[in-house]
Task: structure prediction
Amino acid sequence: MDRDQAKSTTVTAFMELLPWSKNDGRRTPVDCCAGYYRPDHQFSWMQEDWMFIGQVTFPKCLQKLEPGYSAEVIITFISYPELDEKLKPGLTWRIKEGNRTVARATLLKIIEM
Result:
């Protein structure tokens, strides 16, 4: 399937950027005006971890998201049956940059599948 034909799943989520600590968090804010932020999204189901890449879109009024703060965001994933069948409001997951967990997210609403 070529990239232009790939189906996507779009959700609204509450994302909390974690402050820096020894093992987790982020030192610097996310630049919300850059137009892209594509971290890894780690879901845990039945003691298995699943990783998906998701494009995070911030509200237009937000210039940066500082560690320790949160925002309602839109996340667009490439559709995978393993992901789509598990997405339900209230689901929580970790957002990672490399090996560091930098944020937590909670699904608020499914916009499009």
